[in-house]
């Protein structure tokens, strides 16, 4: 939810008319008071599900870590090095404030991770950032995460059940995506942020093409829909050993 301590409408509009990197630099000081920060409830559900299924990990990487929402859980799940990567220096500055110790923060494009991160991680996570990648960029993104993992390493992220067109939220996100397409057709620099560009089937196919073995487990914390399917699942993409 937006609060009175969060960004004003004007600040959000200025952010939306910037590039992704500059927009997040501007939003960074107030980002944790917006609904765009992944809620603790989701982070806790992912942490508990990973711990129950996999135990602990060696080193961990948060891809598009922002202000560090996922870094706390990585520090608890991982015995060794924990790294957060993000494009925005402003977001990383906030992450550094939240995690003054025990975390390496790297400013980099997730589509071009530095060689120092290759083959270094047992667990990679990502929260709330896939809307910033066009479907055509997914193979490159997944290839980068695959490269950063050690053999047997796991890339984990939550996946929501598809919203049916009968639900008002479907129309809200479809409207948002349509507005962003118009914005990006008439305004430079582009701000890539879409809600409906990460469907499960094509995502799984792209992960498999990148060399991952894919499975999902229900995030029991969020319950089930009337048709018996989980509201949220944790996708586990494993790099071959
Ligand atoms: C909505 S925020 C999510 C932050 C955090 N993961 C969370 O869940 O609260 C999206 C983040 O993705 C970062 N980002 C977007 N595109 C990126 C890219 N190509 N490489 C690295 N970071 C990127 C942005 O700078 C921003 O910090």
Q: TL;DR?
A:
The protein is α/β, with parallel strands linked by helices and 241 residues long. Helix content is 38%, strand content 19%.
Provide a descriptive summary of the structure in words.
With 241 residues, this protein is an alpha/beta fold. The protein has 2 domains: 1-36, no CATH class; 38-162 and 199-239, Rossmann fold (3-Layer(aba) Sandwich), CATH 3.40.50. Helices cover 38% and strands 19% of the residues. It has helices spanning 9-16, 20-31, 40-54, 71-77, 89-98, 138-148, 168-186, 200-209; strands at 60-63, 82-86, 104-107, 121-125, 149-160, 212-218, 232-239. The chain has a 7-stranded mixed beta sheet with strand order 3-2-1-4-5-7-6, sandwiched between helices. Helix 6 links the parallel strand 4 and strand 5 (149-160). Helix 1 (9-16) runs antiparallel to helix 2 and helix 2 runs parallel beside helix 5 (89-98). The longest helix has 19 residues, at 168-186. The protein is globular and about 45 Å long. The N and C termini lie far apart (42 Å).
- At CATH's second level, what is the architecture of the largest domain? 3-Layer(aba) Sandwich
The bound ligands are: S-adenosylmethionine
Largest sheet: spatial strand order: 3-2-1-4-5-7-6
Overall mean pLDDT stands at 92
* Structural class determined from secondary elements: alpha/beta
Q: Could you tell me the number of beta strands?
A: 7
**What's the helix-strand series?**
HHHEHEHEEHEHHEE
Taken as a percent bin, the fraction of beta residues is: 15-25%
Helix content: 25-40%
